[in-house]
Amino acid sequence: MRIQDIIAAKRDCRELTNGEISRIVMDYAAGEVPDYQMSAFLMAAYINGMSFAETSAMTQAMIDSGEVLDLSSISKTKVDKHSTGGVGDKTTLVVIPVMASCGLAVPKMSGRGLGFTGGTLDKLESIPGFNMALSPDQFVKQVNDIGAAIAGQTHDIVPADKKIYALRDVTATVESIPLIAASIMSKKIACSSDIILLDVKVGSGAFMHDLPRARELARTMIAIGTNLGRKVGTAITDMNQPLGRAVGNALEVAEAIDTLKGDGPADFRHLCVELSAIILYMAAQCKSLDEGRAIASGSLDNGSALKKFAEIISSQDGNPAVIDDYTLLPQAKYKYDVVSERSGFVSEVDCALIGRAACMLGAGRERKEDSIDPAVGIITNKKLGDRVENGEALAELYSNDESKTSEVASAVCKAYTIGDVSIVPPLIHELTY
Ligand code: URA
């Protein structure tokens, strides 16, 4: 079987066998298939799609390219939460301590941000000293000791995805439902949790721009996970504006801590409580979603989730004093207001553009190898439906480079449409659990 024949089959819409998919994925991971052949294959898969059997085979081949995490020594129910990627999405920083404070085991492997979407690894690394590079033994021990650990994915877990995702990023093949489903589910399965909740983002700041595609992605991932013996739930949630107010690593950590203190932006807290409630329900820790909501809200309001977050920080060599003193987080030198040029209501936000504006400040990376500045970012003062007056600040920029400010300010200004009616979209579109 030649690689060019596999590419030709995908180009001509013939269904590939498990063996053909395994061959191209494994050989690419091993460096035996060059980037130009894998790029051609990915573009053919992007354009012609993949059947469910092909998507499942791709997921399995990616899992088989590396190790599967051994969590057999963790006796409690192991839960995982994953977002398909958004702007200002710091839910992991809140949901993980909430889950652990409720008695669940949360072995969380996270990634870095790429393009307009942020990554948990980058956010947590803005906490001085925080160590994401845990060995498998340290990771498992910490979950057994305190209920949660948040680590960077090790190189031997789904190595094929690292290479394929980097290639997709530069070959315009990211926004493909089967490729996203295989990428996410291979990592989730290899990380061995019993229960997986997938937060599928939909809107202008997500890979899925409309509900039908978000639904299809959700259904595909549920089917893959269920076939592989996992309990999978999905929440399709809105990404037509940044989640909460903060976009940028240290700024997002501060907002997550506010929320763990029982405060924080209403939309962000609401989503954290909903996701936590679903996980608690799926893990049989409550009899209804309402009971789960009450338990999750309680852990935010009574300080138990905050205490758990402090334990996670300390256990991973970070400085827990950041919880009481945000000035210990990296601070940007300059702050600028982006002002509205008219009065009205925020009627639309180009959420990806806000994400890209934060990247321009240095909060994210355009390319995998770029470095980031943890201090910089954007605080959005105005949300969809909010009243705004001419000259009022729509957002605040936190920057370390004055020369970029006017370009970023005009991008942020352009991202906001000010209209005459106040429309607030629902934050949560659909739940399956
Ligand atoms: N997140 C992933 O891990 N993979 C994708 O393909 C898209 C988002």
Enumerate how many helices there are, as a single number: 16
The set of bound ligands, ions and cofactors reads: uracil
Mean pLDDT level: 96
* SS elements, strand count: 13
Strand order of the largest sheet: 1-4-5-13
Q: What proportion of the residues form beta strands (DSSP E)? A: 15-25%
Question: What profile does the largest beta sheet have?
Answer: 4 strands, mixed
Round the Cα radius of gyration to an integer and report it.
21 Å
Q: State the helicity in percent bands.
A: 40-55%
User: SSE string, helix = H, strand = E?
Assistant: HHHHEHEHHEHHEHEEHHHHEEHEEEHEE
Distance between the termini: 41 Å
Structural class by SSE content: alpha/beta
Which residue ranges are poorly predicted, with pLDDT under 50 across at least 5 consecutive positions?
A: none
Shape estimate: globular
Layout of SSEs?
Layout: H1 3-11, H2 18-29, H3 35-48, H4 52-64, E1 79-83, H5 91-101, E2 106-110, H6 120-124, H7 136-146, E3 148-152, H8 159-170, H9 177-190, E4 195-202, H10 211-227, E5 231-238, E6 246-247, H11 249-260, H12 266-282, H13 289-301, H14 304-315, E7 334-339, E8 344-349, H15 351-361, E9 377-380, E10 387-388, E11 393-399, H16 405-415, E12 416-419, E13 428-432
Parallel strand pairs: 1-4, 2-3, 4-5
Antiparallel strand pairs: 5-13, 6-9, 7-11, 8-10, 8-12, 9-11
Helix pairs in contact: 1-3, 2-4, 2-8, 4-9, 5-11, 5-12, 5-14, 9-10, 12-13, 15-16
The protein binds uracil (URA).
The site of uracil has 9 residues, from helix 9.
